[in-house]
Design a protein that fits this description.
The chain has 182 residues and is mainly alpha-helical. The protein has one domain (10-180). It is 70% helix and 2% strand. The chain is built from 6 helices and 2 strands; from the N terminus they run H-H-E-E-H-H-H-H. The chain has a two-stranded antiparallel ribbon with strand order 1-2. Helix 4 runs antiparallel to helix 5 (120-140) and helix 5 (120-140) packs antiparallel against helix 6 (153-180). The chain is globular. Bound molecules: protoporphyrin IX containing FE (2 copies). Residues 54, 57-58, 61, 100, 103-104, 107, 116-122, 124-125, 128, 171, 174-175, 178-179, 182 line the site of one protoporphyrin IX containing FE (HEM).
């Protein structure tokens, strides 16, 4: 049998350092993304053959493509290392979200005459953002509904897992169309 994370109750949550750190991390990512979109931070400079913002997309995506199946396998093969693997999962994928957010923001802040054809990349970003949101809601379950009821954790788990195949398809198509065939 595989393990699942313990769902926290509200009082524990406010004393849970990992929850506070993850929440601050996600808010910081939103602020950084806005700063890049508004051109307060420049990510369009070249590092070797590619722009910095492209490197961010490449590194973030490489982590996602490699670590998702690796986590699935390692979690089952080494159940005694589950806690470390889950923490690596949460903070690793959140960091990948930071990197692909910089890539997205770099694209959105391009000058009008070089503006990209928005489409697949935006859909891809929405997929990653929903994966982060459902992972966060499933792990910490911070929302209390009217009458003190909690959201059903398995709804977020189902959404989280079902989006992964879609993410792989759109990401591979994005890489082939924009990078390999461009
Ligand atoms: C989850 C990861 C990624 C997200 C969310 C993302 C998002 C985007 C977005 C929104 C655009 C603007 C055009 C469009 O909407 O399609 C774009 C363009 C681009 N992306 Fe990504 N991307 C990701 C990963 C990657 C990777 C891994 C590569 C390279 C291997 C890459 C290479 C490019 C290139 C070259 C363009 C520019 C296309 C042009 O100039 O028209 N992206 N990306
Ligand atoms: C691109 C981002 C992400 C991808 C591709 C992804 C992928 C996965 C995968 C493959 C599983 C495996 C489930 C299994 O073994 O049956 C999983 C479970 C899970 N993910 Fe994510 N995840 C992402 C982001 C996140 C984030 C940011 C969080 C938390 C903030 C999170 C929290 C969880 C939790 C709590 C589980 C259930 C853990 C378990 O059953 O071992 N995920 N995710």
């Amino acid at each position: 049998m595989t393990q699942s994370p313990k769902i926290e109750d509200k009082e524990n949550l406010l004393r849970n350092k990992a929850f506070l750190l993850e929440t601050i991390y996600i808010i910081t990512i939103i602020i950084v993304t806005i700063l890049v979109v508004l051109d307060f931070v420049d990510t369009g400079f070249f590092l070797g053959p590619y722009r910095f913002s492209h490197w961010m997309g490449i590194i973030g995506s490489a982590f996602i493509l490699v670590f998702a199946p690796l986590y699935y396998i390692l979690k089952r093969r080494f159940p005694q290392r589950y806690k470390i693997l889950l923490n690596l999962h949460i903070f690793g994928f959140t960091t990948a979200f930071l990197l692909v957010s910089i890539h997205l923001a770099g694209q959105l802040s391009r000058p009008l005459q070089f503006y990209p054809d928005l489409g697949g990349g935006v859909a891809l970003y929405i997929l990653v953002a929903i994966l982060v949101a459902t992972g966060y809601l499933y792990r910490y379950n911070p929302i209390t509904l009217k009458g003190g009821k909690k959201l059903q954790p398995h709804t977020n788990r189902m959404l989280h897992l079902s989006l992964i195949s879609g993410l792989y398809i759109v990401l591979i198509v994005h890489i082939v169309l924009n990078f390999l065939l461009a």
